[in-house]
Amino acid sequence: MFLITAFVAMPSNPDEITAPMDLVIGFRLASRFTMSIFWGLLGLILGAFWDRIKPHDTAKITI
């Protein structure tokens, strides 16, 4: 809800984009690729740690 309110309340950008669209699209694709690699590797690494430590398993204490 906050983002919708901020989007409506903020004025539009009056500046014209002067960069070539090939550069903009290339940057967007490179950014999307690197962010996908980052989040994918982060998920794999943290998933491997989670599986190794197994905090979700409960252990019975026997006396």
Task: Please report the total strand number as a whole number.
Answer: 0
Portion in helices: 55-70%
Mean pLDDT: 90
Q: Structural class, from secondary structure content? A: mainly alpha
Major sheet attributes? none
Pattern of helices and strands: HH
- The assembly state of the depicted protein chains is single chain
Tally of helical runs: 2
Report the principal-axis shape: elongated
Proportion of beta-strand residues: under 5%
- Low-confidence parts, pLDDT < 50 over ≥5 residues? none
Q: What gap, in angstroms, lies between the N and C termini?
A: 53 Å
Pfam families: CbtA
Transmembrane segments: 30-50
Organism: Nitrososphaera gargensis (strain Ga9.2)
Keywords: Membrane, Transmembrane, Transmembrane helix
What's the short story on this structure?
The protein contains 2 helices and no strands. It has helices at 2-9, 21-53.
